[in-house]
Design goal:
single chain; 171 residues; alpha+beta; Peptide Deformylase; five-stranded antiparallel sheet; binds zinc ion
Length: 171
């Protein structure tokens, strides 16, 4: 377990699609520990494997104030979404950008934990938003992709997203 550097835009690895975990071995547990240790050095509430350059479908979240509630989602699949909301998001891979994003704020999700045990859960509010933000990363998407063209052009003009907000291109 170790604190790892977090990739930032415009690193092309942030645009790659992560693969499902099929082998639940020691390397998965070590990856979750790296994600946890790295997340806890930041002010963020979620982090996923691609942000550390590991293209597996693994993400962690902790919305507590004292790092007491680590949640691990591996191979997550959302079955139902409801109630659109607009919540401010930021991203550890896109420093200094905070933007409001419209997303569902209620989701039903199935996933697997780091020991290979499947589970189903319902998330609402910030938890639901954080999960979807991290799942976007697993698909090679960034939250700025969800902004209006106007907002993306504005952010690009300030140099803050260095092309990260360009319309999705085949990679
Ligand atoms: Zn992010």
């Amino acid at each position: 377990m170790a604190v790892k550097p977090i990739l930032e835009v415009p690193d092309p690895r942030l645009r790659e699609v992560a693969k499902p975990v099929t082998e639940f071995d020691e390397s998965v547990i070590a990856l979750v520990e790296d994600l946890r240790d790295t997340l806890y050095t930041t002010s963020g509430i979620g982090l996923c494997a691609p942000q550390l350059g590991d293209l597996r479908q693994v993400l962690v979240m902790d919305l507590s104030d004292d790092h007491s509630d680590l949640q691990v989602f591996i191979n997550p699949v959302i079955h139902a979404r409801d109630v659109l909301g607009m919540i401010e998001e930021s991203c550890l891979s896109i420093p200094d950008v905070v933007e409001r994003v419209v997303r569902p704020t209620e989701v039903d999700v199935s996933a697997v934990d780091q020991f290979g045990k499947p589970f189903d859960t319902h998330l609402s509010g910030m938890s639901a938003v954080c999960l979807q933000h991290e799942m976007d990363h697993l698909a090679g998407r960034l939250f700025v992709d969800r902004l209006s063209l106007f907002r993306r052009l504005l952010l690009r003009a300030t140099g803050k997203i260095a092309g990260a907000g360009a319309p999705q291109q085949a990679a």
